């Protein structure tokens, strides 16, 4: 886009009605906020996936469970979601295993509850703010459309005081109104794409965590026999 075109768009925005300007300001702010969360969630989910893969390799390589547990406890600030689920389950196992009054089924049930609670917190953390992206993707086009409709109404009301209406007179008002739709789509499209991608990634991580919980609970149950 050349400089002349940039200036013409800026002039259209500057000459727009107050309502259209407010709509454009709202959509611009929402778009910037959505890009902020897109980058935040991109790094967070990518980090969670890498840490999950690393811990799976360490766990299934046949390492000692006590050593893995101590490592998780000592490096809690740098552990991933799967490692925290493992830590919660093994901590409950150590706590309940020594209680002679509990049978094996009660111990396993306690282990599953501890891991499930930690799992839910981890998934909730990964899901945080995805609903914002979904809202931006679904609402922004309609907000932009509202600005466009209002701008066109404003443009046609201005024609009432003119004796003759030509394309040159009508076009600037319609063009400034259509900018609102363009900004609405600019805000919505990245938010929708990011939401779909992140929701898919979180679902895949959720499945991996749930599979690990089942397999780990079975391993601990065999140790109780």
In short:
This protein is mainly alpha-helical.
Approximately what portion of the residues adopt beta-strand conformation?
under 5%
- Percent range for helical residues? over 70%
The class by helix and strand makeup works out as mainly alpha
Question: What is the overall pLDDT average?
Answer: 85
Helix and strand run: HHHHHHH
Q: Describe the biggest sheet? A: none
Per the principal axes of the C-alpha atoms, what is the gross shape? rod-shaped
| Oligomeric state of the chains present here | single chain
Report the strand count.
0
Task: Supply the number of structural domains.
Answer: 1
Membrane topology: Multi-pass membrane protein
Subcellular location: Cell inner membrane; Cell membrane
Protein name: Tol-Pal system protein TolQ
Main location: membrane
What does this structure look like?
The Tol-Pal system is composed of five core proteins: the inner membrane proteins TolA, TolQ and TolR, the periplasmic protein TolB and the outer membrane protein Pal. They form a network linking the inner and outer membranes and the peptidoglycan layer. There is one protein chain. This protein is mainly α and 225 residues long. It has one domain. The chain has seven helices and no strands. It has helices at residues 3-14, 18-60, 65-74, 81-97, 104-127, 130-159, 167-224.
